[in-house]
Design goal:
This protein is mainly beta and about 110 residues long. The protein has one domain (about 5-105): Jelly Rolls (Sandwich), CATH 2.60.120.10. The protein is about 0% helix and about 60% strand. The protein contains no helices and 11 strands. It has strands spanning about 5, 10-15, 20-30, 35-40, 45-50, 50-60, 60-70, 75, 80-85, 90-95, 105. Strands 1-2-3-10-5-8 form a 6-stranded antiparallel β-sheet, with no helix packed on it. A 3-stranded antiparallel β-sheet has the order 7-6-9, with no helix packed on it. Strand 1 (about 5) and strand 2 form a beta hairpin. The protein is globular, with a radius of gyration of 13 Å.
């Protein structure tokens, strides 16, 4: 399975989805960001292939920014409010549990619900 899903910030390439896991390659354009969001069940790990990705994670009622570059990872657990922003064009891999529609958007630059 290989499916390209266009996003206003770039694209996702869905490489595999099954009952146990989902694996994607994502490209995010410089100065674009995904929704401020969280997941009820989905657990994901992000691995930076190239570029620079700022990841905002809400912890104890405040946001912590982590700047990640090639070879670095971050684990995002269910319920954690987060957002990714590309500081440079960025390619990253995401391995997660398979809940593809488990996205609760709190804010979105592109007016998606």
């Amino acid at each position: 399975m290989k499916k390209i899903i266009k996003k206003p910030w770039g694209f996702e390439e869905l490489i595999e989805i099954n009952k146990k896991f989902m694996f994607k390659k994502l490209f995010m354009k410089k100065n674009h960001q995904c929704s401020l969001q969280y997941h009820n069940k989905k657990r994901e790990i992000v691995y930076i292939v190239s570029g620079k990705l700022k990841v905002l994670v809400k912890k104890n009622n405040r946001f912590i920014a982590k700047n990640l570059t090639s070879g670095q990872t971050i684990l995002i657990k269910p319920g954690v409010i987060h957002r990714m922003k590309a500081m440079k064009d960025c390619i990253y891999l995401e391995a997660s549990t398979p809940e593809i529609k488990d996205v609760i958007r709190l804010e979105d630059d592109y007016k998606r619900s």
